[in-house]
Amino acid sequence: MSKLKDIVILGAGGLGREILALIEACNAEHEEWNVLGFLDSDPNLAGSAVSAYRVLGNDEWRGHSHDSVWFVCAIGDPRVRCEVAKRFSAMGCRFASLIHPDVEIPKSVQIGAGAVVMAGTRFTIDAKIGSHVVIYINCSITHDVEIADFCMIAPGCNLSGGAVLEEGVQLGTGVSILPRRRVGAWALVGAGSVVTRDIPANSTAVGVPCRPIVR
Predict the structure, then answer these.
(1) CA dihedral in degrees (43, 48, 53, 59; nearest 10)?
(2) Interval 71-96 mean pLDDT
(3) In terms of pTM, does the model score above 0.90?
(4) Catalytic pick from 30, 64, 100, 143?
């Protein structure tokens, strides 16, 4: 039996617990990961237990040599996830890509470092998924979709052919994006929206059809 790879989850909140469950599902299919625990910036959590795993400390943790440990970033806010991932990358840390065992990844689909794909999501062909993207349960990603780094895609989203999400986009639950529509960097699209035309960067957009609103 090969040696298990140590992994630490960055963030001990709800997404952290969900990613822990994802790791456990992966291990049930093929045992690969040894979860050391969580890191979290909240000093009140240090030393406590989350889902039976310890919060080891914050991002100054030096419990193991970074070159012997894998990390996964479990922070929902795309901007904060970007900041944390870049800080750990600068320290030479490696990030694991985690894909639920019931998700089939066609050979033509690219998955970036640190990306997370949860149960029930389906891909067709020729999609590009960037680094540190989080794709929640039961999403559909079709041909030629491009999802840039640090995007957050909530449950039940549907991305039609050629749709593009630029860096840091956040989609609420049940968003649908029509073919070849583009959502600009760091935009937020509200739950249940239908994107029928391009959405500008750094905007909040909602509705059917989806329209930007003033933040």
Answers:
(1) 10
(2) 94
(3) yes
(4) 143
